[in-house]
Amino acid sequence: MKRAHPLAFGIAALCLASVAHAADIRPGLWEFRSTRLNLGGLPDMSSQMAQLPQYLKSLPPDMRRTIEQQMAARGVAMGSDGAVRSCITPEQARHDNIYSGKVEGNCTLADVVKTGNTVTGRLRCTQPDATGRFEARLDGAEHFTTRVDLKSAQGDMQVDTDARWLAAECGAPQG
Length: 175
Hints:
24% helix, Lipocalin, nine-stranded antiparallel sheet, alpha+beta
């Protein structure tokens, strides 16, 4: 289970990037909360996301620093409740640059299709190797949902995320 957490971070970043670049959303500070997290056939673990900050604190300092640096490089911060917060710039909110072949973190997008307020596509991820599908649905300028289903040798993973706009100004990443 502990090995899946870095992939879950990557999936959160992918969901953010997919919708931020594919729809007309408000720029500013956004919060992403897992509403479903299934790893390798285990029961829903979304409630355990609130324990993720404590898990990060228990990691060896070099591993924790690496994960935090990767998140910070993407403008992502983890809240004390396990929600992920990220800033979407006005430029990101304006531009529509999600496409097949785009690399987000350790995943490459393929067969990206935008229809109305929905973006769908396939994923091919490394570290660990995984393939699957994603769907993002915009419910308005201040709310969207995502669903990612991945299959890998380490087990399948399904993640549903609920994203909501918090503020126009991002300031420093909020934890």
